Amino acid sequence: MARFQLKAHDRRGQDVSLSYDNQTSELLDSDGSPWPLPYVDKSWSVGAIEAISQSSPGAKSSPAVLKIQLGLSCNYACDYCSQRFVPHAEETTKDDVPAFMALLEANLSESPQRIEFWGGEPLVYIKTLKPLAEHLRAKFPNASFGMVTNGTLLTPEINAWLDEMGFGVGISHDGPGQSARGPDPLEDAQAKAGILDLYERLAPQRRISFNAMVHRTNTSREAIAQFFLKLTGDPTLVIGEGAFVDPYDAGGLANSLQSDDQAFAFRRQSLDEIRRGRIVSLDVARARMRDWVKSILERQPASVLGQKCGMDNADNLAVDLHGNVLTCQNVSAVSMAPNGESHKAGHLSDLSSVAVKTSTHWSHRQECVNCPVLQACKGACMFLEGPLWEAACDNAYSDHVSFFVAAFEHLTGCSVYRIEGDLPESRSDIFGLSVEASQGVPERRVIPIGVSHA
Ligand code: SF4
Ligand code: SF4
């Protein structure tokens, strides 16, 4: 159990103290009684998850979500890409598709609900992707298809095909912070035309998003939203991702928060943008507010929390076209995790023997067990270790804590400025009030993001 005292101001500006337990999601008044909220009775007697680790490896079953790794080649080399230094496995081609389909036929007991096609850059593999997706569409007509692309290789012909095959597409682009990532496809007339052509095709069915990452030089989600609104002219646009980057190497570390002062400034900016309702087009804003409201109103126990990306879940399966089962879509069968285990966890032909030994569930990390934002963060990347995990955790804490404040304010009217518990001072003092009194808590306003627990 990790219980925290939340120091806050109520609607009249008076000091109040609340108590919050991250393992039971209980929110209590200073006298120990439940904070008066419209709680929802929910049975949590089932739903506990497997807490995977090197000594308690993750299993896999016939997947609800099938992620197919086509290869790690990319026509770009973005600075903080998680795949940048991952050794490439032997390349596959369209000639591998029939054997791969036979493996699926023989070893999946149920149709996947969703199939994702991953690179590198998946469109580098268009000669493989086309026959693969067409076979899969014929076999699994009801599965949703998804792909994330940098957009540079989109053409009217490819776009028509993606539309016809029912793809949902995420275009990786950091908006005003793209230059920190790498080259900008929107500065290439042909690439820009391909991206906007696909946007026009898929946006009416809400099957396309721009996926932007937040990083040290791209901290404003409001600026990201404005960038894509200007690009598309579409007030209903959807922006995916929207979280702070996890660092996988020196490039990722350089794009991480570098100091407590940067962290405080980012947290203040984030809360201000949430309060002003300027980031509602970002999926992440609605999802995090919803997660917090659900967590508190349903008093969600931490024992049901899987890892943030879901790849610890037996139902989420990442494979390459040779049938190798991988930790996730961002690694290869010949790459090793920081804990010395291979990212190749087994083979599609023998799913019951798959053992994911590369990763650590949050419940095995004391920092997460003792963390107030656990219920929404759910640990950083599950296979990172050491300084890279610590930097990912620091980024994640600063990324989540402003949503924590906003959600608690939405529920209780109390504006939390300090979290007391087993925490470093730079986490207790959310906005740096003790070191930078002149900055203060961002001006208080009504939270305009519509949230409900449903
Ligand atoms: S912020 Fe860090 S300690 Fe907290 S849940 Fe996320 S990864 Fe774990
Ligand atoms: S394990 Fe999850 S968070 Fe880490 S790289 Fe893979 S998908 Fe991303």
Radius of gyration: 22 Å
Q: Report helical residue fraction.
A: 25-40%
- The number of E-state strands comes to 13
Span of the ends, CA to CA: 27 Å
Query: Into which percentage range does the β-strand content fall?
Result: 15-25%
Instruction: Say what oligomer this is.
Output: single chain
List the strand order in the largest sheet. Answer: 9-8-7-6-5-4-10-11-12
Report the sheet with the most strands, covering strand number, pairing sense and barrel closure: 9 strands, mixed
Shape: globular
Mean pLDDT equals 93
Secondary-structure class: alpha/beta
Summed up, the helix count is 13
Element order: H for helix, E for strand: EEEEHEHEHEHHEHEHHHEEEHHHEH
Question: Which cofactor or ligand species appear?
Answer: iron/sulfur cluster
Instruction: State the low-pLDDT regions, or none.
Output: 445-454
Report what the structure shows:
The chain is of the alpha/beta class and 454 residues long. The protein has a domain at 3-50 and 362-428. It contains 13 helices and 13 strands. It has helices at 97-107, 126-139, 156-164, 178-181, 189-202, 221-232, 250-254, 260-275, 283-297, 366-369, 374-377, 386-412, 425-428; strands at residues 3-9, 15-21, 27-28, 65-69, 114-118, 144-149, 167-172, 208-214, 239-244, 316-320, 324-326, 344-347, 415-420. The strands form two sheets. Strands 9-8-7-6-5-4-10-11-12 form a nine-stranded mixed sheet. Strand 10 and strand 11 form a beta hairpin. Helix 3 (156-164) runs parallel beside helix 5 (189-202). The longest helix has 27 residues, at 386-412. The model is unreliable at 445-454 (pLDDT under 50). The site of one iron/sulfur cluster (SF4) has 12 residues, from helix 10, helix 11 and helix 12.
